[in-house]
């Protein structure tokens, strides 16, 4: 399952590229009523940390997990606030890279066909990670388009 891990960590290359983005553009909203690239990166930090610490261990063991009690909007609001709390672009990007690589390290010897449930929904580890990858692509496209429009 090396391909899925390569794809899962591809976002870290994107984060490295974002280091060359002008600071002002990085912290500028990507559109009206939208987050900034900084807030999107913080969103990855918060969710990658949550998944690594609270979800992946059970998934790797094939345990059935309860539906998450995390309030999505609340978590996203905390991430957005953190992104605009004075933390540097470099720090945000390094932190995002670190959390994703910690998850990848935990996954390197995983059985991606391992099945589990989240609530009533049956999944395999592969399906869960593929969903994360699709989510990554969505946000990368948003940031790329914003940067191209404003450079």
Automatic annotation (TrEMBL):
The organism's place on the tree of life at top rank: Bacteria
Annotated InterPro entries: DinB/YfiT-like (IPR034660)
Stated name of the protein: DinB-like domain-containing protein
């Amino acid at each position: 399952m090396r391909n899925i891990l390569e794809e899962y960590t591809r976002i870290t290359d994107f984060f490295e590229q974002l280091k060359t983005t002008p600071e002002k553009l990085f912290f500028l909203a990507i559109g009206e009523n939208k987050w900034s690239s900084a807030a999107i990166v913080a969103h990855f930090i918060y969710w990658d940390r949550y998944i690594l610490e609270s979800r992946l261990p059970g998934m790797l063991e094939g345990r059935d997990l309860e539906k998450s009690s995390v309030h999505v909007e609340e978590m996203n609001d905390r991430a957005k606030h953190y992104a605009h709390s004075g933390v540097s672009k470099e720090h945000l990007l390094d932190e995002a890279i670190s959390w994703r690589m910690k998850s990848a390290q935990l996954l390197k010897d995983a059985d991606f066909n391992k099945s589990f449930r989240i609530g009533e929904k049956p999944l395999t580890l592969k399906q869960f990670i593929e969903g994360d990858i699709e989510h990554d692509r969505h946000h990368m496209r948003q940031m790329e388009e914003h940067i191209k429009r404003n450079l």
